[in-house]
């Protein structure tokens, strides 16, 4: 459209006739940074009575018009938009942008960065956030228990199909990976034990180490951490995407209870599956340790078993497996709760899924530590 | 008006998905500075035509030229240069949900125009104001906006790089009549102010009557007619007659004529 494309420029001249601002060249997005800089330089020195000469203006788009409008202010832009020299399209553009600037008020102001105060504010916010998070978790636990008590006496309201399908997904499907994982950890513990105990000539007690470790702690901990990663995230993603697509609202408007329909089957499935998986993990870990004992310590299977039977009481197993339902409940509840907290976007589903995994692993390890203290004091 | 510059030229376009042929030898010209409305029954390939022109769908045969360039045969770099000259508003807005509205609009400014973030955000604010959004909308996320505001924000993003052609896919679908009418008048204002060429896919008869210079009817896998709306409405075709002279069509005609008086 223009004969000689040249970057836009603005010059301010003062003579007897008064101030004169000449605008020429291309005022387009391509030259925006330069134009903005020039406008900032001129902004302070332009008087109220300036005459504007835009006869030599080249191309202009919204960005250029914005710079001009901002430089002149909205009132003078509107005056300029009435200018007879300009073609109609230019006038319309200036007028539209001038109007928009009015609506846009003062423009986007950069947020002031006050280092220390802002740091305090963020600490406060995150503290408040974690307190609210805890309160929400407790509330959700309450809702889940209430839903459970309301339905447990009415077998008609049990969601058996859903429950069985979730047991399959969270329990059965996790068996291979869990067994393999525990087997390998068991082998590693046995290696460590045999090496460390060898210097005392007590490498035979590797058997006890494996037994104590897996029955009391590792069996249930490995299972819980695996399920926190595998199942809590799945629960959050399932419920979260339902929430994002308004399916949860649909359930409510149909007069159904989302807790009863979605949360209870999942939590109950975990309550059943996790203890069973824990047992599998214990066995696999002990087998893994046993294999290493046989290979490294040249111990016969019957010797391994008889030592195991002599040294390790049933209490160890009970103490370990007792933690499984508690962990299962927490993992299930956190997974479901994060799902309900999803809002709108796909991004939100991802955020809450991450949060569910982190929270459930945190809670599992916290509770495990508390349980260890408790058992120690009780002398179990 | 005889020697108008053609900005989009579609010749002998064939689009086929599996056994279903959507377009067969479709021809269409779009001239600079006009608002062309594309109408047709559901499944006649209006959106597919739009996606073909902007280069998202590769046609089975035929030629699509935008600004005289065949997008699909251009090397990536040159293609990107052409693509910056048009803006697309998708049916559901397609705003990036992880960015705020202002960041959505600022994104092409930062990526293509090389502005720094602060400048881009300021310009984005102006584009949002141009599209008729309030100032505080810029800080919100797309999930916090209503349908009409999402359409406006998406329009602001489509306008970010001052495109020459604007592609709109059912911009007024799902809007209440007041917002839809406001969108129509915004479109005409922007076209007049920015000299845009607008390619508008729509079902909205009121939009057709109040904004479009020409209307192209897609039917039987080709463009049945492309002319001023009154002329198109007189076309002797069952579907066109049902569309323009059905109860809704008559109401829109009436409203349009009343508006002119």
The biggest beta sheet of chain A is recorded as: 4 strands, mixed
Instruction: Tell me the major beta sheet of chain B.
Output: 6 strands, mixed
Low-confidence stretches of chain B: none
Helical fraction of chain A equals over 70%
Structural shape of chain B: globular
Order of helices and strands of chain B: EEEHEEHEHHHEHEHEEHHH
Instruction: State the assembly state of the protein chains.
Output: heterodimer
Q: How many domains comprise the coordinates of chain A? A: 2
Strand order of the largest sheet of chain B: 6-7-8-3-9-10
Roughly what is the average pLDDT of chain A, rounded to an integer? Answer: 87
Q: Would you report the number of β strands of chain B?
A: 10
β-sheet strand percentage of chain B: 15-25%
How far apart, in Å, are the first and last alpha carbons of chain B?
A: 25 Å
Structural class of chain A: alpha/beta
Count of beta strands of chain A: 4
- C-alpha Rg of chain A, in Å? 35 Å
Terminus-to-terminus distance of chain A? 89 Å
**Structural class by SSE content of chain B:** alpha/beta
* Backbone shape of chain A: elongated
Describe the structure.
The complex is a heterodimer of chains A (380) and B (261). Chain A has 380 residues and is α/β, with parallel strands linked by helices. Chain A has 2 domains: 96 residues, Transcription Regulator spoIIAA (2-Layer Sandwich); 231 residues, no CATH class. Chain A contains 13 helices and 4 strands. Chain B has 261 residues and is of the alpha/beta class. Chain B has a 6-stranded mixed sheet. Chain B has a 4-stranded antiparallel sheet with strand order 2-1-4-5, with helices on one face. The longest helix of chain B is centred in the C-terminal third of the chain and has 18 residues. Chains A and B meet through helix 1, helix 2, helix 3 and helix 13 of A and helix 4 and helix 6 of B.
